[in-house]
Amino acid sequence: MFLAAMAGVVTTMLLLLVRAMLGPTVYDRILAINVFGTKTVLFIAVLGFVNGRPEFLDIGLVYALINFIGMIAVLKFMQYGDLGWADDRPEDGDV
Asked: Distance (Å, rounded) from C-alpha 14 to C-alpha 33?
């Protein structure tokens, strides 16, 4: 039963990769990659359950946090064009 769930998750992940490649807009691609990360966490959790390794849930949670921070960075970059780092050039009124 869990192997069928894993096969379903992998199939969904493959379809998400197709959506991430084809688009049609950049926001569709971002959404597909975000859902791919969520499905990866689900895959890690099911894999840990099938193998009897509960520590895989910890790995899945760490991956979910990395996925969340990465999506925030990508969306900030899409909105502002940079990640908000200070520019080394002085402005007009600065000495």
From this structure: 11
Q: What angle do CA 47, 52, 55 make, to 5 degrees?
A: 75
72, with CB counted inside 10 A (0-12, 13-18, 19+), is exposed
Q: Where are the chain's structural domains?
A: 2-80
DSSP state for residue 86 in the 8-state scheme: P
Distances (CA, A) of 20 to 12, 13, 30, 55, 89: 12, 10, 7, 30, 37
pLDDT digits (tens, 9 = 90+) for 36-61: 999 999 999 989 988 999 999 999 99
What is this structure's pTM? Answer: 0.75
Cα separation, 95 vs 84, in Å, equals 22
